[in-house]
Predict the structure.
Amino acid sequence: MTRPEFIMELVIKGYAYEKTENEIIITHKDKVWLDSTEEIPVGVEFRNKGEIRLNSLKFFSERTKLNNSGKIYLHSIKEFPSDIEFGKNITDIRIRNKWLSDYQFDINGINKLRYFSLLIKKGLIWQEQNLQSYYTRRAINMM
């Protein structure tokens, strides 16, 4: 999807945004539901004050920032780029049909979202079927 196409979708749905030379920053004061969006352009930052629903999105583009307040729904996601950024106000992420908070850890005190971000930044490939054991193995190896 091109930047103009993405901006047009935001305008049609009534979502507030700011545009810079390299970024589109979604500043809406509530939820942002882009359930039918299959791709987003490079350099999009979600800075809205509610949940994000991107249920048809399979891949994030480079320089995506998820700095919303609330939950994120990603029912079709297959992979994350290594430079994706997750903000500290995200309460949970639904990947396919499971919440990130549902995955159990054998190590106490690990923030799951921060750990998930670390795995992505290190270029490790996420696969839903072995995410739980992958978290545990990698956490032990990184200590």
